[in-house]
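Q: Could you fold this chain for me?
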Amino acid sequence: MSAMSSMSPVPNPPVVVVVGTGGAGLTTAITAAEHGAQVHLVEKQAGIGGMLHIANGEFSGAGSRRQREHGIEDSPQRHLEEVERISHGRIDRDLAGLSVRHQGETVDWLDDLGFEFHPDCPGLIHGHEVYDVPRTYWGVEHGRSVITVLQRLLEEQIAAGRIRLHLATTMTGLLREGDRVVGVEVEHDGRAESLAGDAVVLATGGYDANIELRNRFLPQGCRDVLVGCLDHATGDGLLAAEALGAAVSADGIFLPVMGLIPDPARPQHAVDYREAFVEMAPAYRAPHEIWVNRDGHRFVAEDTTSPEHRERALIRQPGNTMHVVFDAGVVAHAPVSLIRNPADEWTPERFAEACRTSPWVTRADSLAELAALLEIDADALAASVASYNEAVDTGSDALGRTTLPRRLEQAPYYAITTVASSILSRDGLAVDTSLRVLDTAGQVIEGLHAVGEVLGNNKFAGDNYVGGMSITPAMTLGRLLGRQLAGAGTEKES
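A: Sure. Below is the predicted structure, expressed as structure tokens.
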């Protein structure tokens, strides 16, 4: 049992309504309950966890016990400096700084709870720009490892009568008396209900599954990117708060997730990457293929070690689309499958079978036929392959690629089409450092708080992806907010 599970009841405890059961909502609700609040926890899905079900679940924190045990010297100040460097100084320094100062504590908290850390933790993650210091952690079951720990704490608080969980319950609006939010309107099994509270917390996640809303925030030229997140991420909390006059950022920032495969059965959606994606990072898979755009031209060195460099290169291509082109020699000799999933179950044998049968793979007996099937210029594709083959022979590539394992010349030829994808909402609600939602005039909307992805990832990562700066701020600020709303924390920490 947790340390707070047997505490005495608080006279006239505050009532908190938390909407959403991802990392932010769960930590807020659990912490508020542990410190004496009565909590309504609302979730429109049939189960808890939100995007943690598909997330890699990487979190970061400086000064943790695990770092010290590995002889790693680090500090929150050094972490914040690196976040600023990778984000190009475009974070909300107050919010990101508040989170970073406490993220090492979050790591230790999870450690105390028996979180199943992957044995490589703390480590360096190469899917995004890399920290200078190993301060990233992840579970043996990725995001589901986080769910496992938080579910146990949640069940304790439900059993103690301090949390009432409302599953398959949709928030339909916010209740307001005068200038204060006093609860939420919800619907369950067709029945409407009002849940009153001294405070309401929107932890409803992002909006990327709502294509119309997502496209409102995307730059021109990026409106056809694939949806890579789960279907429930429809921006409910953002829209409900905006209807009350809440301020919403509109930074125009987009950096894609790369490697997701268009789902033949769902236009504008990606194949669930728990099933398959194309691994782009050379730290995990040395490239044996070339990448060409819709015009048949290569556009970036496929072995670049900078994720940001290749991500920015992709969004400059027509349709944000690229084709991963390879031949039978790659299928036979590449030691690692191009297609992977988080469990790394894609053996070379399984990949070879997919090349023969999968609808995700285009196959042809010649480059000209492959170009026709991809609807790209045959001469351009042939020239791209010829130029690459010459680079293999000479050791000198026009784009600066240095990984040149073998010529592409053995039929059949193959291509996997992959499109830039959105999986994480960049914009979101404006809040102060007490996580109180602000209106368009910069004034607090009393009684309304927000935490997690509904704030927009830009606040914590600027115009880039920064390791662990999504789930960790969600959990860290959720814990701070839970204590605050239960009356156990300060109203504002600078």
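A (continued): The radius of gyration is 24 Å.
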